[in-house]
Design brief:
Strand order of the largest sheet of chain B: 6-2-1-10-18
CATH class of the largest domain in chain A: Mainly Alpha
CATH architecture of the largest domain in chain A: Up-down Bundle
Order of helices and strands of chain A: EEHHHEEH
Helix content of chain B: 25-40%
Largest sheet of chain A: 2 strands, antiparallel
CATH class of the largest domain in chain B: Alpha Beta
Number of helices of chain A: 4
Chains: A mainly alpha, B alpha/beta, C mainly alpha, D alpha+beta
Bound molecules: flavin-adenine dinucleotide, iron/sulfur cluster, FE3-S4 cluster, FE2/S2 (inorganic) cluster
Number of domains of chain A: 2
Shape of chain B: globular
CATH superfamily of the largest domain in chain B: FAD/NAD(P)-binding domain
Distance between the termini of chain B: 63 Å
CATH superfamily of the largest domain in chain A: Fumarate reductase/succinate dehydrogenase, transmembrane subunit
Radius of gyration of chain A: 23 Å
Structural class of chain B: alpha/beta
CATH architecture of the largest domain in chain B: 3-Layer(bba) Sandwich
Helix content of chain A: 55-70%
Strand order of the largest sheet of chain A: 1-2
Largest interface: B-D, 62 and 61 residues
Shape of chain A: flat
Oligomer: heterotetramer
Radius of gyration of chain B: 23 Å
Number of strands of chain A: 4
CATH topology of the largest domain in chain A: 3 helical TM bundles of succinate and fumarate reductases
Distance between the termini of chain A: 68 Å
Chain lengths: 136, 587, 116, 253
């Protein structure tokens, strides 16, 4: 095979196989896979949220039944695990965002730490807002 | 296809610039770019401080010319330096157009900084990784020319000469071990210097003088080889360079008493570091390298240096610049000092000592880079044009790569266009012989008891002992004898590795062979020059002697010792005078 | 001529979903899934919830949250399958499964929220 | 760390592959002096000079700038001229060629793939018309230099490719350093090659293979942050895609 102007012609290259279970080889890779797994928590809760709204829509009995399920140990444990994953998602997401986002004010680049701080500030505001909406 | 139009050996700054010059002269010309390492690994990558060229209004060509001539102790060819200084700004602008990230002034113009031995600030820089940025800009730009054919990790072993002219090289492909013809109607050697001939050097592993040796063996003389530059500020132990830019930005040198000792060596009077005129150009820490390195030896003899784990040192102090300037202007200095000397220059002074840095001498060329062998050109540190004389001024070398790289490229292109097509058969025959020589002397050889590392270490030590900063007849004689002995023992060498694939031990032995040639040329040229000039200081002949030695030495390879001859220096408008430093404030 | 990828379409949805999920989901999940059931916080009663969800804007917001979250999952999970299991060669079926699920879910969510 | 006599020592388990003699790699163990100031590269040089001249590896500058001495040390990609022995003691050091690349000999990997990719992204200033040299330099303010400076610091050491599992699985991925280099030119005020490079980067082999593992930036000795370069480019490429779909008349084809 010809690669542009660089030729591949050496016959004796040793090509190591990439390990199938590569992601348990390093803590950083495990963390990466965990980060990617947060998407399961995200979709889990998206479904629960929709069911929650549907239960309200279906009337007080349906809602009561759903609330009862929410109180079951199974549901509580599922939610607890999902909660940790969601927080992990939020943190990794906000921490990595400055890498992709470059904001200019005039000719100057806004520094990563400022963007980071803005992200967390928004998170706090949204969280407080949601609490206010549902508990008052 | 082993037949090209121009063959360039060396993918450093000079080789890349030459390659681009060839294809730009005539895009139909095909250039083989042969390099023993991937071009971006070439040692140009390590240059830190900057490249000199006059562009600011407060400066003039005249200044740059004169600084260089006096810096080189009048051993500079004045026609060459004039042309160099004139062409320098365009070359650096060209590199700017090719993307080199030069450091800038607030208004967007290129910024300049002061360097040793320079009357005005005229050194362009890219923070303190100038060589790195220049090399990468050149290499990446070179990729856009389809006419440049890379031979990466091919090691050139000898020149192919046929019909009285140089028509290519024999080269060993490191990954397969095959020795092949790489033919062209002209050849440019750009293989850089030979710092590895000495034990303690700023140079990387690849600077082994291969190109010098190839030309030398082909009968081309090596010019001014006795002039080797010691840089005053290397890190003890490793020899890693702390750039002159550290002093250009205001760093000072002090001895064990905290005293700025340079004032005792006719280099002017120090201003306080808080003085707005500090650092004063061409004075104190901004004196030329030869004088600063020599001053260190005197301090050492007076017992005023500091004892360190790796021998005596003095301190380079940049603390007063403050963290901000250090991080902005010389971040690499901070990185290197922290990593390799374990100190943070923001808070502590940096231990330094003189270290072998640069070869002023090299393959004798004229202003177009051509040598006495038709079809053979040379440029860069490997060549001696000569614009560096007896002592190179810092930051002239990077510019030299560009100016003379381009000139050699154009001249070699022109030459190639005028020649008849290459006949491959006779060259092939020479390469078969070369292959056999290498195989027989190293790969299939029986017996042999010497190790590469033993001979290499002894060579380096004897060079430092006899051909270091201060030299004498006695010391040089010993060194010459020792080198002859090592040459003898070299024929008894034996390799552990007999394989073909990436046999790096084979490369080492070929490099050692070349280094022994270079060492011999240096020692014998030094022994013959019975005067002191620039970097060549003889304790037994302490003064400059223009009557007998205002001449370039020319070392020719002989059967035993080299033959040393001389050639006139070109003097046009600047008659030999006294080198004056530190007096500028009095003007 | 090389073909530019259509990946940006999915990536934009993934990114939007990531932002929405990062901002909203921890708080919502914490309340509905943990704090209300365990009575750490007083849960809103049925009527006030009904009132809240009756607001079409709220339902629209919920649709956005659940749908974008689903696309966020779809994209990320697709690559997790590729990387974790080395099945890039199954590109088409995996993508179909992931994005298909997200699309179907979005349709279902839109319908049920519309008919609230 | 073991103590033989006075001088403390450390063991290096070195990966050996001599294609003319063996089909599969093996390991050789060498005991070398443990000196405070020694880096792994010094230990390898010691082995080559004193113990076994046939050990092959690349190096030159020994000051972290030429980029040739990258290897795996205990599974992590490092510049061996910047990795001190003492930080591994006590214990031994396993030295291997950079992961994810074909091995040519001992610690030497094949660079072909990277060289081709580097070439492919057109790492040079692309302009519509060149300014004559007599008109001097292009003006570029320090802020404009800062836009691309970080991405121009790459020494092509390839540690990032060794750290990236995606490259390990999909060698067609253009990969971190080459994309960062493309960004170095895209963000240079003198360059007008963004469109050209987009055809190369916005493909399935380009940025879209990257799932932001982020290890490339972690191991980079020059703080180039290739992961950042790639994510930024995803944003650029996405904006461009939507623009070309929603406002097709604005994109030049
Ligand atoms: C640490 C350091 C800092 C410096 N700082 C500055 C500075 O600030 N300013 C300044 O002006 N100068 C500086 N210099 C000097 C300057 O950098 C060098 O003189 C210059 O870079 C040499 O470039 P070159 O192209 O001639 O050779 P190199 O860059 O050394 O390249 C030599 C090339 O030849 C090839 N080669 C060698 N032998 C063979 C062979 N047998 N076969 C095939 N290929 C071969 C190599 O692969 C390489 O590509 C510095 C030097 C050092 C060591
Ligand atoms: S991006 Fe960093 S790690 Fe990757 S090649 Fe460049 S310098 Fe090395
Ligand atoms: S490690 Fe690989 S997946 Fe992307 S962020 Fe870096 S290139
Ligand atoms: S030897 Fe040059 S980077 Fe390590």
């Amino acid at each position: 095979m010809t690669y542009g102007r660089y030729q591949k012609y050496h016959p004796w290259l040793y090509e190591p196989r990439f390990p199938i279970l590569w992601w348990i080889k390093k803590w950083a890779y495990i963390r990466f896979i965990l980060r990617e797994m947060t998407s399961l928590a995200v979709v889990f809760y998206a479904v629960v949220l929709l069911l929650y709204v549907n239960a309200v829509s279906d009337g007080p009995e349906a809602f009561a039944a759903f609330t009862a399920w929410l109180k079951s140990p199974l549901s509580i444990s599922l939610h607890a695990v999902a909660f940790f994953f969601l927080v992990f998602h939020s943190i990794t997401w906000f921490n990595l965002a400055p890498k992709a986002m470059v904001i200019h004010i005039g000719a100057k680049k806004v520094s990563g730490s400022v963007i980071l701080a803005m992200n967390y500030l928004t998170w706090v505001v949204v969280t407080v807002g949601l609490f206010w909406l549902l508990t008052f | 296809m082993p037949v090209h139009d121009v063959v360039i050996v060396g993918g450093g700054g000079a080789g890349l610039r030459a390659a681009i010059a060839v294809t730009e002269t005539d895009p139909s010309l095909e250039v083989a770019l042969v390099s023993k390492v991937y071009p971006m690994r070439s040692h140009t990558v390590a240059a830190e401080g900057g490249a000199a060229a006059v562009i600011k209004d407060h400066d003039s060509f005249e200044n740059h010319i004169f600084d260089t001539i006096s810096g080189g102790d009048w051993l500079v060819d004045q026609d060459a330096i004039e042309l160099f200084v004139n062409e320098a700004p365009n070359e650096l602008v060209q590199l700017e157009h090719w993307g080199c990230p030069w450091s800038r002034e607030p208004d967007g113009k290129v910024a300049v900084r002061p360097f040793g031995g320079m009357k005005k600030e005229r050194t362009w820089y890219a923070a303190d990784k100038t060589g790195f940025h220049m090399l990468h800009s050149l290499f990446q730009t070179s990729l856009k020319y389809p006419g440049i054919v890379p031979y990466d990790e091919w090691f050139a072993t000898t020149l192919l000469i046929h019909d009285g002219r140089c028509q290519g090289v024999a080269a060993l492909e490191q990954r397969t071990g095959r020795v092949e013809v790489i033919a062209g109607r002209s050849v440019i050697i750009c293989t850089g210097g030979a710092g590895k001939v000495y034990p303690f050097t700023t140079n990387g592993a690849i600077k082994t003088g291969d190109g010098m040796s190839m030309a030398y063996r082909a009968g081309v003389p090596l010019k001014d080889m006795e002039f080797v530059q010691y840089h005053p500020t290397g890190l003890p132990g490793t020899g890693i360079l702390i750039t002159e830019a550290a002093r250009g930005e205001g760093g000072i040198l002090v001895n064990s008493d905290g005293y700025r000792y340079l004032q005792d060596y006719n280099l002017g009077q120090p201003l306080d570091v808080s003085d707005s005129n500090h650092p004063v150009k061409k004075s104190m820490e901004l004196g030329p390298r030869d004088r600063l390195s020599q001053a260190f030896i005197h301090e050492q003899r007076k017992g005023r240096t500091i004892k360190g784990k790796f021998g005596d040192v003095v301190y380079l102090d940049v603390r007063h610049l403050g963290e901000k300037i250090i991080d902005q202007k010389i971040p690499f200095v901070r990185e290197l000092a922290s990593k390799y000397a374990g100190i943070d220059p923001v808070h502590e002074p940096i231990p330094v000592r003189p270290v072998l840095h640069y070869f002023m001498g090299g393959i004798d060329t004229d202003k177009t880079g051509s040598t006495s062998l038709p079809g053979l050109y040379a440029a860069g540190e490997v060549a001696c044009v000569s614009i560096n004389g007896a002592n190179r001024l810092g930051s002239n070398s990077l510019t030299e790569l560009l100016v003379f790289g381009a000139r050699a490229g154009r001249a070699a292109a022109q030459f190639a266009l005028e020649q008849s097509p290459t006949e491959l058969a006779p060259l092939r025959k020479q390469v078969v012989d070369e292959d056999e020589r290498i195989t027989k002397s190293y790969l299939t050889k029986e017996g042999g008891t010497e190790r590469i590392s033993t001979i290499r270490t002894e060579m380096r030590d004897t060079m430092e002992d006899g051909a270091g900063i201060y030299r004498s007849e006695e010391g040089l004689k010993n060194t010459c004898n020792k080198l002859a002995e090592l040459r003898d023992r070299f024929s008894n060498i034996s390799l552990d590795d007999r394989s073909l694939t990436y046999n790096t031990e084979l490369i080492s032995v070929l490099e050692l062979d070349a280094m022994l040639d270079v060492a011999e040329a240096v020692a014998h040229s030094a022994r013959a020059r019975k005067e002191s000039r620039g970097s060549h200081q003889r304790t037994d002949h302490p003064v400059r002697d223009d009557d007998s030695y205002l001449m370039h030495s020319m070392a020719y390879k002989g059967d035993g010792a080299p033959k040393i001859d001389y050639k006139d220096v070109v003097i046009t408008r600047w008659p030999p005078g006294e080198r004056v430093y530190g007096q500028e404030q009095a003007e | 001529m090389v073909k530019r990828s259509n990946e940006p379409f999915w990536w934009a949805l993934f990114g939007a979903g990531g932002v929405v999920a990062a901002l909203c989901l921890p708080a919502l999940l914490f309340m509905t899934g943990v704090a209300f059931p365990l009575e750490w916080l007083a849960a809103p009663d049925y009527e006030s919830l009904y009132g809240l969800f009756e607001n079409p804007l709220v339902r629209l917001a919920i649709l956005a949250i659940v749908s974008l979250s689903a696309f966020h999952w779809a994209h990320r999970f697709r690559f997790t399958l590729y990387d974790g299991l080395h099945i890039k060669h199954l590109n088409a079926p995996v993508a179909l499964f992931c994005y298909g699920s997200a699309i179907a879910f979005t349709g279902f969510a839109a319908l049920s929220l519309y008919t609230f | 760390m073991s103590n033989s006599g006075l001088q403390p020592t450390i063991d290096l388990e070195v990966y050996r592959y001599r294609p003319e003699q063996q089909a599969e790699p093996t390991y050789d163990t060498f005991t070398v002096p443990l000196r405070d100031e020694w880096v792994i590269l010094d230990a390898l040089n010691y082995i080559k000079d004193e113990l076994d001249g046939s050990l092959s590896y690349r190096w030159s500058c020994r000051m972290g700038v030429c980029g040739s001495c990258g290897m795996m040390a205990n599974g992590e990609p490092v510049l061996t001229c910047a990795a001190f022995l003492k930080s591994y003691a006590p214990g031994s050091i396993r030295v291997e060629p950079l992961a994810n690349f074909p091995v040519a000999r001992d610690l030497i990997i094949s660079m072909d793939d990277f060289m081709e990719k580097m070439n492919r992204i057109q790492p040079w200033i692309i302009t519509d018309e060149e300014k004559p040299l007599e008109e001097g330099e292009y003006l570029q303010t320090p802020d404009q230099v800062d836009e691309y400076k970080q991405f121009s610091m790459c020494i092509n050491c390839l540690l990032c490719y060794s750290a990236c599992p995606i490259y390990g699985m999909e060698p067609s991925f253009i990969g971190p350093a080459a994309i960062a280099l493309a960004q170095r030119y895209n963000l240079d005020s003198r360059d007008h090659g963004q469109e050209t490079r987009m055809d190369i980067l916005s493909t399935d082999d380009g940025i879209w293979q990257c799932t932001f593992v982020g290890e490339c930036s972690e191991v980079c000795p020059e703080n180039v942050d290739p992961a950042g370069a790639i994510q930024r480019y995803k944003v650029t490429s996405t904006n461009d895609w939507w623009k070309s779909k929603l406002l097709p008349w604005t994109s030049k084809q």
